[in-house]
């Protein structure tokens, strides 16, 4: 996540998502060039991610647009991980019973040079049994 900058600087908000998979590796989205990784959250023992939502800034026309700013996820037992402050989108449909998040797909806007950069614009999580 790139932190908000004051005045007329170009902010990008969310620049990547990484899933850490129970000591069996990780799945990482495309990563934008801005920001730093936040401290990871984790579900309680024997639980897994089952749904998510994004905080997405509304289109600001002539002002600096950032698109996605934060992601929150929910664990099987109801624990919420991630940034839930501010207006959020609705929760995704949950994974089916006995399934959990096992992969992701994102859309990342390429740097616009002199245009308005937005970073991550789309997130889709996949469920597996």
Automatic annotation (TrEMBL):
Protein name: VMO1 protein
Origin: domain of life: Eukaryota
Pfam families, alphabetized: VOMI
CC per GO annotation: extracellular space
InterPro entries assigned: VOMI, VOMI_sf
Gene3D superfamilies: Vitelline membrane outer layer protein I (VOMI)
């Amino acid at each position: 996540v790139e932190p908000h900058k004051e005045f007329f600087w170009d902010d990008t908000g969310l620049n990547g998502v990484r899933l850490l998979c129970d000591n069996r590796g990780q799945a990482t989205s495309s990563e934008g060039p801005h920001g730093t990784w936040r401290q990871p959250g984790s579900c309680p023992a024997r639980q897994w991610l089952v749904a998510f939502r994004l905080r997405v800034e509304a289109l600001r026309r002539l002002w600096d647009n950032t698109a996605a700013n934060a992601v929150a996820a929910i664990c099987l037992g109801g624990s919420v991980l991630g940034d839930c402050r501010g207006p959020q989108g609705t929760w995704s449909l949950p994974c089916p019973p006995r399934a959990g998040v096992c992969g992701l797909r994102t859309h990342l806007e390429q740097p616009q040079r002199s245009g308005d950069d937005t970073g991550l614009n789309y997130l889709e999580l996949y469920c597996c049994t």
